[in-house]
Design brief:
Layout (H helix, E strand, L loop, with lengths): L9 E5 L1 E4 L5 E4 L5 E5 L7 E8 L5 E6 L8 E6 L4 E5 L8 E4 L8 E9 L2 E6 L2 E8 L11 E6 L8 E11 L12 H9 L18
Length: 209
């Protein structure tokens, strides 16, 4: 999802969205912060790989409904606190998960995020911090919502966030295999048939048939 030209594929909500020299996606905050939403909707089940570079935070959001800037599942690696935060709204501290990585965070952070059947898994810098944890339904801004990037506040004026890679892979729903009858199953079923089951012979047919 890195833009091939300008901000192709992304819709700017606040701040400036532009393409870096090496094709990376970049955002720069203004007086309202900086946010951009991907124009493509990927459905409920997907896996994304993101590598960010930023002096402070470079967040991204899941399940964004396209209108409310505080209604989505947000993922943020807080470098100064060495903390991964997943929340329903960055401004709602009571609705969040906070996990401390073993390795201290630096300016470059690599994420792998998986959303499947309403559960969330997050790997940060090759360390799995959240695995198949159910996300409350009221955390999502919208079913089949958009994916976005940026920060929703202005603590860091003229703050530049770089998303070196941003790849999303849709996941197919799990399909249970259809049971196939084996030879042993057929023999077992035949052996379970009652021995006194009546059968029809030629003597049972009426003469005037």
């Amino acid at each position: 999802l890195t833009p091939s030209k300008g901000s192709l594929g992304w819709r700017s909500l606040h701040g400036k969205v532009f393409r870096g020299k090496n094709g990376e996606l970049k955002l720069k905050t203004n007086h309202k912060g900086a946010y951009a939403a991907c124009k493509t909707v990927f459905g409920d089940d997907y896996e994304l790989d993101v590598e960010t570079h930023s002096k402070f935070e470079a967040d991204f959001m899941l399940g964004y409904d396209g209108t409310n800037m505080h209604d989505f599942v947000g993922i943020r690696a807080m470098r100064r606190k060495n903390l991964l935060q997943v929340s329903s709204c960055f401004c709602t501290k009571s609705a969040s998960w906070n996990v401390k990585p073993k390795v201290k965070l630096n300016k470059t952070r690599r994420y792998r995020v998986k959303v499947k059947d309403g559960n969330l898994s997050v790997t940060l810098n090759d360390e799995e911090l959240i695995k198949d944890r159910h996300v409350p339904s009221d955390w999502w801004g919208a079913p089949h919502g958009q994916v976005g990037v940026g920060v929703p506040y202005v603590r860091f004026p003229n703050h530049v966030m770089t998303y070196k890679t941003f790849k999303i892979r849709k996941l197919k729903p799990d399909v249970k295999p259809t049971p196939v009858a084996t030879t042993s199953d057929i023999k077992k079923k035949a052996s379970e048939t009652p021995a006194d089951t009546p059968t029809t012979t030629d003597d049972d047919v009426p003469e005037d048939f």
